[in-house]
């Protein structure tokens, strides 16, 4: 066998390939697209050289008088380089391809990325975003959002998801939940409709879904350990409204708190006991219950209508207890206990028909988990993942604003989904909404038809200062004048947000600029069944009929 020989032709070819490869690698540092284009230029140049370079060299020799001198110099270096026009083309096509790659590379540098943004907001390319994310640490099992991952240093930040139904919010949530499960982390998910649980839940999970089979039982008394808990729980079950209704709600909160305290002192600690006093107790019995409390004023002469109105509010807000076993009390599931142990995933599920009646239950569950988590003390290594899709549908969570701002020190991590600012404003005040969204470290904006929401996030993404050349022609001598003009414009226009395609949007990680995002579909089939159960009232000791509270809409002045 003959020894392999490095000829001059082979050395030139290897050197040319090396130079071209360096150009492609440098292009990859800028963007994957640029690297692909440079690689394509190299390949096409080789193909052109293989097909046409020999004849082209022969033509150049005839047209350019000094070209033969170049051939003579190459012959002097190594005659094998130019024995024939074919041998000349065999190695020179690699030189041509390498030169083409570097010409394109320099052209890309001169042209830039096609953007004339000189200052302000600018969308990052995929490669730029990945580079910044990697600089903050990539975990072994990453939390995935679209084609990106949440860096290790930013995993404690919460996420806000904005978009109308069908745009990809649920797909993002599903992928995050699957990432939690791979890590062995647990979560608390408020699942409106139960669609997420059906796809990724487990038979070992805890479910609070009173209109479905296999739901855990619950009672307010499982959350009460001292008298202050009564006041806190009452304010969670009965949310204080705005305007004139706030006065009624406050009286109803006080009434419920006093009632819970009485039940606790007398050890009347089942759902049946509580509902009896809410709906069935006589006036004389209630006067004994509320003696010595602030609610006793409701039993004074002339306050009959006010008392009836307050009782109607309390009965309506606590009507979700009809969905649980009336004879359970302290020894059943507790949201507070779950927040301390977190040994199983917890799902709080309602169907469409029970959405309104279970609203106080969802508000209580979320509030208790938040409150108990904050009481655990600071621990940044703790992970309490809370998924709240369709956030406004869960009512106003009074502790959410503070939890979003301070929660990561205690291990709380939220994923909040909503459709528009209008829905958020219907539940939270404008200032509260902006404070909650401002505390979310990561944000994904998907399509939303709401003009106000699109404008808000267009403004949030920011303005760009661009520079362009303006040429003006002066008469009568037709002289031209050139000047650089700077304009300020939105990096993303509101109409762009309103016209996004499904599974496409914009993303921002904490401390990093915005970028485009494309969301892959999570291919999961329903693996869990939620079987509706038949509910029968059983609170009345004398009959099986549930007492339906009467609603009053009188103002305080009328009473």
From TrEMBL:
Question: Type IV secretion system coupling protein TraD DNA-binding domain spans which residues?
Answer: 145-519
Single GO cellular component term:
plasma membrane
Q: Where in the cell is it found?
A: Cell membrane
Q: What is this protein called?
A: Coupling protein TraD
Q: Which UniProt keywords apply?
A: Cell membrane, Membrane, Transmembrane, Transmembrane helix
Q: Give the taxonomic lineage as stored in the record.
A: Bacteria, Pseudomonadati, Pseudomonadota, Gammaproteobacteria, Oceanospirillales
CDD domains for this protein:
TrwB_TraG_TraD_VirD4
**Pfam families attached to this UniProt entry:** TrwB_AAD_bind
Q: Which organism is it from?
A: Marinomonas gallaica
Q: Where are the transmembrane segments?
A: 6-29, 36-57
Q: Entry's InterPro entries?
A: P-loop_NTPase (IPR027417), T4SS-coupling_protein (IPR051539), T4SS_TraD_DNA-bd (IPR019476)
Q: Which domain of life is it from?
A: Bacteria
User: Membrane topology for this entry?
Assistant: Multi-pass membrane protein
Show the Gene3D superfamilies listed in the entry. Answer: P-loop containing nucleotide triphosphate hydrolases
């Amino acid at each position: 066998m003959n020894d392999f020989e490095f000829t001059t032709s082979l050395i030139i070819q290897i050197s040319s390939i090396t130079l071209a490869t360096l150009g492609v690698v440098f292009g990859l540092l800028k963007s994957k697209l640029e690297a692909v284009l440079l690689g394509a230029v190299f390949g096409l140049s080789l193909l052109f050289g293989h097909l046409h370079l020999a004849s082209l060299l022969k033509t150049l020799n005839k047209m350019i008088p000094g070209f033969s001198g170049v051939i003579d110099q190459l012959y002097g270096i190594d005659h094998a380089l130019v024995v024939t026009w074919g041998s000349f083309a065999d190695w020179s096509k690699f030189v041509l391809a390498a030169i083409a790659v570097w010409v394109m590379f320099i052209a890309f540098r001169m042209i830039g990325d096609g953007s004339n943004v000189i200052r302000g907001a600018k969308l990052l390319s995929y490669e730029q975003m990945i580079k910044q994310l990697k600089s903050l640490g990539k975990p072994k099992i990453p939390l995935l959002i679209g084609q990106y991952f949440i860096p290790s240093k930013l995993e404690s930040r919460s996420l806000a998801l904005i978009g109308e139904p069908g745009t990809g919010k649920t797909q993002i949530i599903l992928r995050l939940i699957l990432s939690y499960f791979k890590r062995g982390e647990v979560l608390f998910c408020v699942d409106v409709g139960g669609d997420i649980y059906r796809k990724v839940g487990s038979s070992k999970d805890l479910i609070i879904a009173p209109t479905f089979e296999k739901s855990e039982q619950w009672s307010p008394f499982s959350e009460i350990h001292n008298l202050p808990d009564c006041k806190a729980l009452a304010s969670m079950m009965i949310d204080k409204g705005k305007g004139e209704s706030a006065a009624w709600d406050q009286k109803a909160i006080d009434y419920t708190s006093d009632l819970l305290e009485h039940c606790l002192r007398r050890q009347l600690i089942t759902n049946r006991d509580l509902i009896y006093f809410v709906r069935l107790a006589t006036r004389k019995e209630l006067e004994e219950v509320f003696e010595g409390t602030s609610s006793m004023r409701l039993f004074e002469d002339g306050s009959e209508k006010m008392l009836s109105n307050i009782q109607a509010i309390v009965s309506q807000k606590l009507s979700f207890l009809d969905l649980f076993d009336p004879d359970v009390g302290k020894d059943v599931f507790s949201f507070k206990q779950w927040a301390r142990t977190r040994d199983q995933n917890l799902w709080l599920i309602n169907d469409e028909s029970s959405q309104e009646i279970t609203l106080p239950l969802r508000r209580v569950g979320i509030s208790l988990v938040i409150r108990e988590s904050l009481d655990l003390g600071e621990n940044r290594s703790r992970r309490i993942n809370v998924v709240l899709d369709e956030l406004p549908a869960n009512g106003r969570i009074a502790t959410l604003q503070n939890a979003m701002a301070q929660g990561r020190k205690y291990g709380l991590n939220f994923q909040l989904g909503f459709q528009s600012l209008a829905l958020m404003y219907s539940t939270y005040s404008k200032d509260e909404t902006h404070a909650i969204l401002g505390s979310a470290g990561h944000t994904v904006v998907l399509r939303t038809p709401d003009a106000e929401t699109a404008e808000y996030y267009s403004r949030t993404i920011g303005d760009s200062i661009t520079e362009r050349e303006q040429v003006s022609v002066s008469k009568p001598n037709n002289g031209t004048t050139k000047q650089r003009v700077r304009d300020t414009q939105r990096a993303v226009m509101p109409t762009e947000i309103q016209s996004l395609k499904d599974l496409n949007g914009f993303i921002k990680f904490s401390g990093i600029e915005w970028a485009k995002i494309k969301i892959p579909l999570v291919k999961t089939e329903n693996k869990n069944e939620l079987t509706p159960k038949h509910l029968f009232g059983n609170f009345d000791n004398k009959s099986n009929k549930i007492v339906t509270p009467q609603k009053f809409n009188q103002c305080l002045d009328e009473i």
